[in-house]
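#lab-general

N.A. 3:47 PM
ok so I finally got the sequence cleaned up, no stray characters, all 271 residues accounted for. can someone with queue access submit it? mine expired

B.Y. 3:52 PM
send it over

N.A. 3:53 PM
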Amino acid sequence: MTGRLVLVWALVAAPAAAQRLGTRVAAAPDGIVRLSFAARPGVCGDGHNVIALECAGGKCGWGRGGRTITVDRGFDRDEVEYDCEPGPVRVSLTVRTGRVQSLRTYVGGRWVAPRGDAAVTDLGTVASRDAVEFLLGLATQEDAGGGEEAILPLTLADSVIVWPLLLKLARDDRAPRRTRRQAVFWLGQAAGDAATRGLADLIDEGDVDRDVKEQAVFALSQQPHDAGVPALIRIARTHPEPGVRRKALFWLGQSGDPRALALFEELLTKP
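B.Y. 4:20 PM
back already:
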């Protein structure tokens, strides 16, 4: 498969409802545009700056077995009230002259009523698939603000298998490089044989940028050891690019896996 897949289809072939969502955002007055959609099972948050993954029974993060993302980039801490809740995903878009300049992502909580004359447009709850199509389209636009930040919320959406979309985005050399790297990072969080194969194939493709390949090596290191370690060992042994091989060796060294130690012994004792 070529690395020059252009994700124009993400906008052109999007369902009419998703296209309307983009139109509604573009038509909003300058200010904040809010939208919400259902979170996939296992995702919860405090509605503020914590998003936790792989949660069960409402026990989200904080040493309870899930993975936790702490988002703290100078966001307006008063925009939402919060408890730890299993959704919804809330996206706050800053819009100027019909274009998205930046976005913020929350899970759970409640929107706070706008203050005074603040320009806030609330689009309400939208279908998860429509939100994913809109966010993916935003991520692929070279001149769109918030493209890199659009990846996180689309990975949290309910009832949408997003890893094939992330893989296509990672291969799209017309998408902003930082956005492609972010897509690879979140692809690495999608456990499973298919996601692992997709990452390994991406690393092997000749026309993919080296920094994207190196991000894919890191993403493989985040896979369960039975999936990620064999792929990293193969890359460390056979990949034609020395920099990619070094990255694979580095992350193998972080794994503590006996198979990685055996590889190091082999390489160090080789005549």
